[in-house]
Amino acid sequence: MAEKSTRRKPFEERIPEDVRQHARTARDEVRAGLQAFFPPEVLEHGRKARKEMLLAWRGMIDAVLERMDEQKI
């Protein structure tokens, strides 16, 4: 099982906990509404499309890093 990362939470000190909880609840309700509205196949297609876009960005970043290494920038 993956461990949780220790990421910064910049708004934790500035936004009250009850406001953040309402935002989380709203997000969860919107997600549930979309899941009820769209067939599971559409949601799965969207997930796969997001993954492909991230893989494309990874490939572009890797290519730029290789060019930088070759040019010793």
Provide the low-confidence segments as ranges: none
Largest sheet composition:
none
Q: What distance separates the N and C termini? A: 39 Å
Strand tally: 0
Decide which structural class fits the backbone: mainly alpha
Globular, elongated, flat, extended or rod-shaped: what is the shape? flat
Mean pLDDT: 88
Discrete helix count: 2
Share of residues in strands? under 5%
Element-level helix/strand string: HH
Helix-residue proportion? over 70%
Instruction: Report the C-alpha radius of gyration, rounded.
Output: 19 Å
Give a verbal description of the structure.
The structure is a single chain. The chain is an all-alpha fold and 73 residues long. It has a domain of 35 residues.
Task: Describe this protein with a few key phrases.
73 residues, mainly alpha
Q: What's the gist of this structure?
A:
This protein has 73 residues and is an all-alpha fold. The protein is 73% helix and 0% strand.
Could you outline the blueprint of secondary structure elements for this entry?
Elements: H1 17-37, H2 40-71
